[in-house]
Every structure is written in C-alpha cells, then in structure tokens.
Amino acid sequence: MADVVSLRRQEPSGLVLREVSGKVLRLTLNNPPANALSIALLDALAAELDAAAKSTDIRVVILAASGEVFSAGHDLKELTTHRADDDRGRAFFEKSVRLCADLMLTINRLPQPVIAEIDGLATAAGCQLVASCDLAICTDSSTFCTPGVNIGLFCSTPMVAVSRAAHRKQAMEMLLTGETIDASTAKDFGLVNRIVPKQYLRQVVDKYAAVIASKSPQALKIGKEAFYRQAEMGITDAYDFATGVMVENMLARDAEEGMGAFLGKRMPEWKED
C-alpha cells in the first residue's frame, strides 16, 4: 500500500467531504439522511471532480458516502417544490437531470479511475452513480434498485449507466420491476466488482486504490479513455482504434521506462505529468 503523504479534510458541514492520502482522493457524499443528489450536492461533487481532473498529484478517486444510504438519487422534495413554478417545473427538472447526466459523463471522462465504495442503499440516480464509476466495491448488506417505475417515472437517465454496467436483460429487469436487489445479485448482474464485510470495506477499497495509484499515471489516463471509446464502437473499428492507441502508448515515455525496467529487472520510475 502506498505511503500516506498527506491527509486533508474539508469542514464536516460540507456536502462533499474531501480527503487526500498519498495519490488517492476520497470524496464522501455528506447530505444526510439519504445523500440525495440535490442541485447543491451535484455542483459540489462536480467541482471536486473538475479539480481532480486538473491535478497531477491525484491518480485515483474514491467515491464514498456517509450514513446508511449511499445515495437515494435525485432530491424528490426539491423537485416537487418546483411544480408550483409557472412552467410546472420544466426548467428546474431539465437543470437537475442535465447536471446529473453531466456529472456521470465527468466521471466517465475523468483521467483518473474512480472507485465507488458502497455501504447501504444505492437507488435511482444513486445506482446510476455506482454504475458510472470504473470499479465498485460494496458491503454484503448493500442494496441497489432503479425504482422509478414504481412512482410512474421510468429511470431513463439511470438506465444509460446501468445498461452499460449490467448485462442487458438484468438491467431491464431492474428498470421494469423497480425491485431492490441484494449485493450478491448486483455482483451477478455486473454492477459491482467485489462484496466485502462491512468492517473491511474501507481497507479493501484503499488497497485497490493504492495498487492502481502505483501504476503509470500516463498509462491509466490513456487506458481509461480508450476503454470507454472502444466500447461504443463495432469490433473492427474498435481494433483499428485500439491499434493506434497501443502504438502511441508504446512511444510514450512511461512505456519506454516500464519496458526498460522490466528487461533490467528493476522497479520503474514513473514521471509526473
């Protein structure tokens, strides 16, 4: 595990708590009791991720949550208050849903890998948040659902991330039934990578983050971007694209250093961007 170089925390009143340990940034949703994705929380989390994207010191981001709910999704109370607006809430609804979608794209396009650390319920846009992260590790008591259909509101935007993380028919099962699935089922569906006992959650997530953070930051950035771009292509185009990426990666300084270190039987020394 990487040595702890620094440890900084935001004031506990913040909607998103920030902690840096070595090359790892931990962002904790702090909007109790449900960690609802209000406009304010979405803005706060987006600002943190934008700052991380510009940082050469951060190699991995962990997304966690305080309390017993990872996230209940959009703040329905906040949305409902705007039904009294002249446009029946249309402008506010569009703003809220667009901000959420943009946040998911920010995670997808972030140069650093993002690990979701889930302990509790992740529902609707909260489940979307889990599905949008590159890796997801949860406790054995965590649960997941896309329950919009139960209140006459199909989870259309969560569907985008969930259908790309879970197997297609399993994603449709979640979306059509609105039923809650347990951690084991979520792993079978493809929503999460690992299930661990509650008392070991942070330890396991920190270990994953430290292992990833020890790799070439240049390779991580190139690889994450390429992964998502090729996933949207047909197989022939994907191989053409990946071939070009691989060649350029081979010419990059970290690949030269890594290959030389391997052949020289020594540890590589990665350069900071």
TrEMBL record:
UniProt-recorded Gene Ontology molecular function terms: hydro-lyase activity
Residues forming coiled coils: none
GO BP terms: fatty acid metabolic process
InterPro entries: ClpP/crotonase-like_dom_sf, Enoyl-CoA_hydra/iso, Enoyl-CoA_hydra_C, Mitochondrial_ECH-domain
Keywords, comma-separated and alphabetical: Fatty acid metabolism, Lipid metabolism, Transit peptide
Highest taxon in the source lineage: Bacteria
Gene3D superfamilies recorded: 2-enoyl-CoA Hydratase, Chain A, domain 1, Lyase 2-enoyl-coa Hydratase, Chain A, domain 2
Family indicated by similarity: Belongs to the enoyl-CoA hydratase/isomerase family.
Role noted for this protein: May play a role in fatty acid biosynthesis and insulin sensitivity.
Name of the protein this chain belongs to: Enoyl-CoA hydratase domain-containing protein 3, mitochondrial
